[in-house]
Amino acid sequence: MEFKLRGTNVIAIELITDNTNFSVEKIKQFISEKKQILKGTRFIISVENYTLNETELDSLIDFFRKTPEIFFCGFKTNLKENRELCIKKGIPCDISSMELEKIEERSAAEEIKFIRKTLRSGDKISSSGDIIIMGNVNPGAEVEAGGNVYIMGDLRGIVKAGIGKTEGEVRALFFQAPRLEICGKEFTFNRKEKYLNFKAKVKGIHQTIEYYKDRKGKNG
Q1: Which residue among 53, 69, 97 closes a domain?
Q2: Using one digit for the tens of pLDDT, what is the confidence trace for 86-137?
Q3: Per-residue model confidence as pLDDT tens digits over 51-100
Q4: Range of the domain at 160
Q5: Residues 82 and 145 placed together within one structural domain of the fold
Q6: Lowest CB count within 10 Å: 141, 162, 163, 205, which one?
Q7: Which residue has the higher pLDDT, 9 or 43?
């Protein structure tokens, strides 16, 4: 069985499966055979029109834990049941929600800066436009952007987005930071809580925060 691979607009490789070809063992075999090609990539499994069970999910999670050469970002699905099971297990689901969105007020001249590493304490990154971080933002690291900030990992440091703007957002696969700032508005959080599929957005006077608590239901 041959699966399809495609790139995504969050700089990742997506494995496409559905109800006609989904098989945990064949997926693991397929990835193992292409391990050298996929080495160092961020990887997403798309599951369309097929309901995952807990045993299948656990088997895939265990496989990726034993395959550190590939950074597993989570699942993308069109079924609510799959999303709920992933959240229960603390696994990001529906990465498509992290696709970049065009914002009318952004100038075409503004840069999009890609950071392909984890930011550690003392690191500081800034940009007049968007910043996309292919790693974690650790405590003590700072990110400042005139545009949006997208983090394909843990956000535990300080982020300021939409500086000087009336619209901006911050997204992260995992969020566990004490505060963040968007368009000059500050949000504070309980540092002990960890959130999944985190999104905070400011648009004029409107503010929205969406997330899942780790291994719990949806909040915010």
Answers
A1: 97
A2: 878 878 776 444 443 444 444 544 567 878 789 999 999 998 888 888 789 9
A3: 999 999 999 999 998 988 887 878 888 888 988 898 788 787 764 444 43
A4: 103-219
A5: no
A6: 205
A7: 43
